[in-house]
Predict the structure.
Amino acid sequence: MNDLLVELQTRIAELERRSGNFVRKVKVASYENGKVVVEDGSGFRSARVTQASITSGEWQIDAPANVGAQGFLFCQDGETENGIFFPCIPSSAHPHASNTGGTLCLKGPSGVQIEISSGTLTITCTEATVNADTINLGATGGKKVARIGDMVAVGGGSSKGNWPIVEGSSTVFAID
């Protein structure tokens, strides 16, 4: 009978240990190549575990966590070395990107921000590069745009012929 009680106590202790590891609120202690070490302030510190990203078919969204970012460590089998870190809890050091309902906002370092709200897309950054075969400014079917050095056909009067563009915008640039 004593052996049975000891065995039951051991099994219950193991189940309690594993159930305590299913979900933990944690903070990133270090990040390296898609893996993080997280801790919860109680003395728990994980091995290197994978940080979750959003992937759905051909689309992937990933934002490597900074040290101090908060989230949850999910351990499906109760073993923390098999856990996955989901960075999802705002803090004063890492606040919400937006508090406005109906707004999609992505904020990054150095003031970079992409916001979609009420049908308007706003991109804030120091420089933007667009790699596309065709770019339509405003809507499709607009007029062609020329760049400095492009030869442009000019019609009418004594200036008829092909002439190069010699001045352009100081804020919009293009590469051949």
Summary: The helical segments are 2-21. The CA atoms of residues 103 and 117 lie 5 Å apart.
